[in-house]
Specification:
Length: 138
């Protein structure tokens, strides 16, 4: 088995698509990622509390969303890529039992920095939209 390769700045051009990534939001995933990010709001782990507050089910928290965007971009760019910025907006919730599908496209290459437009959709629509900027080795 060979080690994962890191993209080089010269390997990437504007318009380069990233491969899709799907994440199934099981109740265990939703709960464990909320706890791992120290987000103890009950709507992320207590179905009854989520219902009482008007939600269909427990839902993924924003800290998990940030981590998933980072994972998506670094899985594509490789282990030597360094995340310089993540700027996201949340749209519709991602409830337990739904699936997030990530897509992305390179929108800028400036020296060793690459900006990727990222979207994650679920059955309700756009859950995450935003950008991530990574620094690649020369």
């Amino acid at each position: 088995m060979s080690a994962p390769q890191t993209l080089r700045a010269g390997d990437v051009t504007v318009g380069t698509p990233l491969p899709p990534l799907q994440i199934h939001a099981t109740p265990t995933f939703v709960t464990s990622t909320a706890i791992a990010t120290r987000d103890f709001q009950d709507v992320h782990h207590d179905r009854d509390a989520a219902h009482a507050r008007g939600s269909k089910d427990i839902f993924v928290n924003i800290l998990t969303d940030n981590g998933l965007v980072q994972r998506y971009v670094t899985d594509w760019a490789g282990p030597e890529a360094f995340v310089r910025a993540i700027d996201i907006r949340l749209g519709v919730p991602c409830y337990a039992y739904d699936t997030l599908t990530f897509s992305g496209t390179v929108t800028a290459v400036e020296g060793d920095r690459v900006t990727v437009a990222v979207t994650a959709k679920d059955s309700l629509g756009d859950h995450i939209t935003g950008t991530a900027t990574v620094e690649l080795p020369a």
